[in-house]
Write a structure and sequence with these properties.
Elements: E1 2-11, E2 14-24, E3 29-34, H1 40-47, E4 55-60, E5 63-64, H2 72-76, E6 79-82, H3 94-104, H4 110-123, H5 139-151, E7 157-161, H6 172-184, E8 188-192, H7 196-202, E9 205-210, E10 213-218, H8 220-225, H9 230-239, E11 241-246, H10 253-264, H11 271-289, E12 298-304, E13 313-319, H12 333-342, E14 345-351, E15 354-360
Amino acid sequence: MLSIRNLNKSFDGNIILNNLSLEIVDGETVVIIGGSGEGKSTFLRCINRLIEPDSGEILLDGENLLAPGTDINRIRRKMGMVYQHFNLFSHLNVLENIILAPMKVAGVTRADAVAEAKQLLAKVGMSGRESAMPADLSGGQKQRVAIARTLAMHPEIILFDEPTSALDPTMVDEVESVIRSLAEDGITSVIVTHDLRFARRVASRVIFLADKCICEDGTPEQVFDHPANVQTQRFLYRSRMYETELTPATLDLYALQSELRAFLRRYEFEKKQERLLPVLCDELLYPVLMHPEKPATSACLRLLCSETSTRHTIFICFRGVSDDPLGEPYLDELNLKLLNNYADFLLSRRKDDGWEVCIQL
């Protein structure tokens, strides 16, 4: 269906895509992953020429989108685009958002457009919300309306640009279910995402972009569980890690808990693990970093999440302390008991510049 050959794109002399080639067949759900700045969104936008490539070929059903004289507006009708921030018209209700393009662009009668819009809203789980305004919808609901709006134009392929990144983690499942149903219907999709859990669940094929080209291409099992490329292995490991540097002067326990909770929710976890976070902050980080006589000079905290289980681990390296952080003068028996109530494993060990605490959630 879609053939990309030797695609190149630069901005101000900085190469973003270098001789990139990719074949996408009818019915595939291709998910593109990679680090920030690796050209994922640029590549997606080059496909429908929202960004003009420097050179190469993009063929949809054998027709080159980059050939001189190509009617790109006609070609774009075959390509749906779902954006990160929904791009719904805020002054129009749900129904009017969906029927606008079919009526104005495709010449569909209002009666036919309304009838199909209601069917599409049922498909994405939004029946009965025709009169709702975008401001009254949750992020997940807005994205489902955006998908229905795209489907109303009967595209041959749908391009998704970070469809879950603007959503609360609890709403990702809503959009995931809709995209899964599109795959079951045989609709071809190309999805750019940084959410690897989401990618694993919806993809029939995963592409890893790095160094301005494709470094890995395979099934979710091949790419996520048995990556052949060293860069892929390194990227997947780093993507599972939240890391932050803490000091007594900059410690903000509320912000830290919020960030840890948001990161943990990308993965499978148990409620007990989430309840550990405030205990960890109040009973370990605060006493050690804010001790009136022997505070740590700093602490490096790493949360390492597992892709395949609910077993996650936190490492905290306290610098500038000579005493065990899990004992006096920082923790007493009550503090330690509270931590042990929530942690499956708790261990401290001496390091050259302080102490490290390992906590298995």
